[in-house]
Specification:
The protein is of the alpha/beta class and 255 residues long. It has a domain of 68 residues. The chain is built from 8 helices and 10 strands. The protein is globular. The model has no long low-confidence stretch (mean pLDDT 91). The structure holds adenosine-5'-triphosphate and magnesium ion (MG). Adenosine-5'-triphosphate (ATP) binds next to strand 2 and helix 1.
Length: 255
């Protein structure tokens, strides 16, 4: 399973005639199983459009997406998805929200009791299993949403700016949670972020997308050791990667 995800000439145009918006592509991307790939690009370049097409929630105008040689033709329920706005329902507890994901997939909940406890523990929410979303802080809700996206142990995870609304400290904490989870289970992760440092810290590869209509400008392999803790973040090599990407955004006139 060398090229786990293949994206071929993928393009999305919204609307018709005068209302036509060429949002994204054409783009070719190949992702290997177990890679952590970040997608970085200016606002409106089509990152969310790409994620929705990958999740099978939005039909491409042209081109194809393959997971393990199977073409995406409808909503994919075997992957984990986390978007900026968390998807917790207010009328269920944290635990109830996590179970909802299992119910939707017809999985046997009794087999997941320990897993639910362990994943909540990994983000320090084990004491809040019986609380409702309204009883949690924004960061805690986001961590609960993270558990919800991961509980069925998907081998592919799409994260579209999952940390956007969090304060800096919580954001740093969840970054390391995501990294730990990835290091243990090695899922394939596609991570959209606006933060260059976040992309360099987490990713094995960063894909830079041009302003709309987004195309792949360049791909940068991040050759730094994991776990990427503070000592790695203070290294010269880390700053070189960050500067290289900043230069590209500078050329776009975005920063
Ligand atoms: N449903 C839609 N109908 C019409 N146009 C849309 C629709 N969804 C997105 N677009 C347009 O497509 C372009 C790309 O949008 P998209 O949300 O993918 O950008 P993005 O890269 O995720 O931006 P941001 O970083 O701000 O989240 C934008 O110009 C947007 O206006
Ligand atoms: Mg977006």
């Amino acid at each position: 399973m060398d090229q786990f995800i293949k994206i071929n000439s993928l393009k999305k145009v919204f609307g018709e005639g005068e209302d036509e918006v060429h949002a994204f592509g054409p783009v070719d991307i190949s992702i290997k199983s177990g890679e952590f790939v970040s997608v970085l690009g200016p606002s409106g370049c089509g990152k969310s459009t790409l994620m929705l097409m990958m999740a099978g929630l939005l039909e491409p105008t042209s081109g194809e997406i393959y997971f393990d040689d199977k073409s995406v033709s409808g909503p994919k329920n075997d992957i984990g998805i986390m978007f900026q706005d968390n998807t917790l329902v207010p009328w269920r507890t944290v635990e109830g929200n996590i179970k909802l994901q299992l119910e939707l997939r017809n999985l046997d909940i009794s087999k997941y009791k320990d897993k639910i406890f362990n994943i909540l523990k990994s983000v320090k929410l084990e004491d809040f299993a019986k609380r409702y979303p309204s009883e949690l802080s924004g960061g805690m809700q986001q961590r609960a949403a993270f558990c919800q996206a991961m509980i069925h142990e998907p081998n592919t995870i799409l994260l579209d700016e999952p940390l956007g609304k969090l304060d800096a400290m919580t954001r740093e904490k969840i970054r390391s949670d995501i990294q730990n989870l990835w290091m243990i289970n090695k899922p394939t992760v596609i991570f959209v972020t606006h933060s260059i440092e976040e992309a360099v810290q987490l990713s094995s590869r960063v894909i830079l997308i041009s302003p709309r209509p987004g195309i792949v400008d360049r791909e940068i392999n991040i050759d730094l050791p994991y776990p990427r803790d503070l000592s790695v973040k203070r290294s010269n090599k880390f700053f070189e990667y960050v500067h290289e990407i900043q230069e590209v955004f500078h050329e776009y006139g975005v920063i």
